[in-house]
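Reply to dn_fold:

You asked what the input looked like. This is it:
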Amino acid sequence: MRARLWPGTEAMRAGIMQGAAQADIVLPSFDEEEATFGDATPQSVAARYHAAGAGLVVVKNGAGDILVSDQAEGSFNHSPEPVAEVIDTTAAGDSFDAAFLAAYLQGQGLRRAVVQGAELAGHVVQARGALVETG
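and this is what came back:
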């Protein structure tokens, strides 16, 4: 969310919710939502974004369960596979988002898309930095 780039917390909250009101898909991270909006659960995060107008909300939660909440298809949790060693979480969320969106927008379905996102994020956290070796 990069709080230091905003003039204040209220402006940041308002800007985020204004963006969510225009979005079909929102991919928040629970820890940031908890810190910024005071959400107590991933479900409360999803409910807030649905109320703003987003149809699909995928709440990432570090190594914890990922909440997928789709107003059309319902909700489910996905438990990511554990990784051998977390070295650096830089770009984990962005990597999840990229793989999730690529799979989902290619028609692979929500469940497959969330698996793809979690697998790439799991790969990224096992190396230092945002750019990691593939294959």
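Strands lie at 25-26, 56-59, 66-70, 74-78.
Hope that clears it up.
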